[in-house]
């Protein structure tokens, strides 16, 4: 890289790392390594967060807002396998958004997954709480 590009990338660094070419070159190389590594780490963390949200919504039996979340009582792995067998190609982020904002649609996906994968049929849905009516 030429000197101008290095100084442009080193803008905002502290001390001589922003205006001394030898130090700036080292710091810029290290910064680019960190950014490359952390872009991948960020994707992994976001994916783990989406999966954790969906698992919580699927398994949680006493959610704080019961009108927006259902107690599906289905294993996450079996749920995803059932969707795969039915050729429903929704990624985990979309499924997480559906489970939070469209609980009726998500419940129908859970039912489809249950019917597609025999491992899901043995698990019955959680009983409804008294005095609470959820229309599906």
From TrEMBL:
Domain of life: Eukaryota
InterPro entries: Ribosomal_bL20, Ribosomal_protein_bL20_C
Keywords for this protein: Ribonucleoprotein, Ribosomal protein
Annotated GO biological process: translation
Gene Ontology molecular function: rRNA binding; structural constituent of ribosome
GO terms for cellular component: ribonucleoprotein complex; ribosome
Family: Belongs to the bacterial ribosomal protein bL20 family.
PANTHER family: 39S RIBOSOMAL PROTEIN L20
Name of the protein: Large ribosomal subunit protein bL20c
């Amino acid at each position: 890289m030429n000197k101008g590009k290095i100084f442009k990338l080193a803008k905002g660094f502290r001390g001589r790392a922003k205006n001394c070419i030898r130090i700036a070159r080292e710091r810029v190389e290290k910064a680019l390594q960190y950014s490359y590594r952390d872009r991948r780490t960020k994707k992994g963390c976001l994916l783990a967060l989406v999966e954790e949200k969906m698992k919580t919504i699927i398994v949680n039996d006493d959610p704080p807002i019961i009108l927006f979340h259902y107690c599906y009582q289905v294993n996450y792995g079996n749920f995803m396998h059932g969707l795969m067998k039915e050729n429903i190609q929704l990624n985990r982020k979309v499924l997480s958004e559906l489970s939070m904002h469209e609980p009726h649609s998500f419940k129908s996906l859970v039912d489809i997954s249950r019917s597609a994968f025999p491992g899901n049929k043995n698990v019955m849905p959680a009983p409804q709480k008294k005095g609470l009516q959820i229309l599906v």
